[in-house]
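Model the whole thing, not chain by chain.
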Amino acid sequence: MRETHLPEARLRAEKGRTVLQWRQYADACEKADWMEIRIQKAKPPAPDLRKMMVPLGPVAVFGASNFPFAYSTAGGDTACAFAAGCPVVLKAHPAHPETSLQVAELIQQALKKHDCPASLFIHLHDPSFELSRLLVTHPLLKAVGFTGSLTGGRQLFNWAAERPEPIPVFAEMGSINPVFLLPGKLAASATETAQLLAASITLGTGQFCTNPGLMIGIRGEELYDFMFTLKEEIDKVNEAPMLHEGISSAYTHKKNVALAETGMETLAIGRVNASLAMPKGLPEIALVSAKKFINSEVLKEEVFGPYSLLVECDNEEEMYQVARSLHGQLTASVFGTDEEIKNAVNLMDAIQQICGRFILNGVPTGVEVSRAMQHGGPYPASTDSRFTSVGADGIKRFARPVCYQNWPDALLPDELKESNPLGLWRLEE
Amino acid sequence: MRETHLPEARLRAEKGRTVLQWRQYADACEKADWMEIRIQKAKPPAPDLRKMMVPLGPVAVFGASNFPFAYSTAGGDTACAFAAGCPVVLKAHPAHPETSLQVAELIQQALKKHDCPASLFIHLHDPSFELSRLLVTHPLLKAVGFTGSLTGGRQLFNWAAERPEPIPVFAEMGSINPVFLLPGKLAASATETAQLLAASITLGTGQFCTNPGLMIGIRGEELYDFMFTLKEEIDKVNEAPMLHEGISSAYTHKKNVALAETGMETLAIGRVNASLAMPKGLPEIALVSAKKFINSEVLKEEVFGPYSLLVECDNEEEMYQVARSLHGQLTASVFGTDEEIKNAVNLMDAIQQICGRFILNGVPTGVEVSRAMQHGGPYPASTDSRFTSVGADGIKRFARPVCYQNWPDALLPDELKESNPLGLWRLEE
């Protein structure tokens, strides 16, 4: 089954990642730190108070287009919802319905094996807009997980907010993942930095939500050195397959819209491969001045694929203005020497305010599955910057606290019993 | 200054509570468990990842009508926002503008004493609808805290959701705090239970968001015994001052609307005190059948004051149906023997699903300021059931995680440095 043009290496990586997620969430369930258990024993007249997380209720998960495994049917959202104790209604992504169905069957087998009701996981195929609306507005649904476009995510958010009983929507949407290039660092390693970025921009034909779609540098010799190597590197990258028709045509379209903005120049372009069948994507790097960039909303939109825009600033003050003009991002990266970073107080502060993950001297692609990971960021990177969609803390999205007051030990849930029979992590005061 | 008719005892209690909150939030800041620090040291090729909470940004806090101190100018929302590192724009409640101004001046003095900029706290007086809208829709505002009516809270929520960049609104709104009375418990202690509830219903002239506005019992001798004592107790409670005109007239109006529903009877009524000046509130208990209650939306609305409705069920199944018909609540209480609670599996499950705090054999009034407290609940008790507005976990409402990737130790925020110079609680993996 090859509905999507997933190269073998990425297929393996994605499957491995999916398994890793389930293992980490299972481990998190054993420790239950996500449950935020707080115990305050009775101190008369104050009563015994014991708080823990309980499931929010049934969760609608929308399969992602670009990750048929790790962010879809048995992806992070489904694993987190199950870990929190919530049933899942999964809407298969129309780009890989057969893959989704096969994965759903595996989930059903696993439920059966563990004597869980089959209704804990419902798999829906209908790609219609109407089904999405019905799901999000259904009174029994209590939360929504989504990875995809800004338009799609915002629509789900709006429907959920307009309900008689509003529910949370965790939509991970667009991000251009800005990379700030400070001159001292480029003076020391323009070539290596350009090589790193060229590889990150074209990794997986650019089909990662953490793809570095924006680079910001300060006009000068170091930046020209960087540009020279970047061009050299990109020029030799071949046009490559993309996952499916939808992603490929959206890439070309969005790229052309961006390139049509005034002041845009092409800096580098990959090797056309006419013999390669569609869907495919041709790497491209554009160049624009900071002034043009700051005033263009179009240039701040994600172009999903192997594309990046280099913004040339006159000085660090202008770089700061670029940072201030950006919307929320999943990640932001800075290449700088320790000295440069220490001195750029305002710039670093402005960058921290717009991102969920803040990287020094590294590229944003590569998202570790870890409790220390934050995958999410201020709007529009995600609809709720207070939560992550990668790592065990993602479980918290689908749970809410309940405080048990004055319960006799025998009647308390096991999680809260005095003897801690499940061996959970608890905070006792 | 006595803008509001706050009896001395309550004034002292409320001031004490306000101080207690600030102390607990200060303590929470020292430990910083709310920061959810997660450290994963570099395991090449995996990079060093360190996650902590950072402030969301400026927070708008709306002073509450019923708590001039503990839920207003220097109340829990302000303390939590400051603890998270967020500036506060406070909108004074029109019922106590002078109190609010004096408290605001104390905050300004404290800021000055600690060399903090005065702009960390802005105090606004304008009671207009338009100011509320401007605040919630202001692009620099990043979150909203509110305690008040469902209509008011939902309006703020809607404005926030319709923004180009939606922001979270933490509105604590109506709750009728149902109390389920199981027959075995009443058979053993109908009198004590009725005395407890009568005191809870009339405490502070019923002006607490955790006031028990609904009791549900099963027709029978035990319930009649309970009703007899409840009537006896309420009949001797005097009509008493309420905080201000607005609360008092809303109480009388909402009570009359409820009493006008078909099938409603008055079970007990307090002692009229004609010589007492307005604003005041007369205690009253009404009685209705489960069938009428289940089908009435009006009877499920909060009547803020010393009023409660007793719902008579034919049997436990009908009591379960009542529980299923309820909206989200701050609290729910059950009076039952251990045996009864163990056996009422479906009922207990249905109750847990609608409440934030679940009390056994106790009344809901009295909200401890503690990490183990949950003050919040499924909609419409609050707009976001995943957070509390009482206790140090309330700080989490105003913060979001940022992951620092690949930072040299010297450049990391102190909270994340390898030597843990601030001595914070951290999870290292």
